[in-house]
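Friendly challenge for the regulars: who can give me the structure tokens for this chain first? No prize, just bragging rights.
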Amino acid sequence: MLTVNLWSPDTCGCVLHVVFDDSDPAVPVKFATLDQAVQIHRDRFLARPATTKNPDLEPQPPAVICSAHASLGHTSSRHDAVMGENRRKNIAFAVAQANIPNITPEQYRWNFDLNRALSMSFSGVSVSPQQKIAIQAACDIQFGPGLVAVS
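First reply, four minutes later:
Bragging rights claimed.
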């Protein structure tokens, strides 16, 4: 059955309505407008009133658009951009883990610039110039040049 949740990435201040099928994990997560989210919530309540909050008593809250994604509005393009940035940050860390033995998430520093390029660095762990070059090369192959900068 379709379920709607609010999701906030750690890569920006957006809050999005995301829809997934809780009976089939193979169905990809997708974007929903507020109207769609309200309808999915209502349909779920009608089908499962014992386990779903009453949408009349607890209405679906609105999504939030951060300043970095304001130009995209409440659209699937914003959803795709936010999901893509979050995946890029996570995959870049996986690339770092493959190149730096014993690195922890606490040692991974990252941020997005105004153009939404990811800058990544490391703290509290020794990283050689060769490791940085290897990480940069792998990220360039994975995402294309200019989307990740390793320092």
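The mean pLDDT is 96. The radius of gyration is 19 Å. Your move, everyone else.
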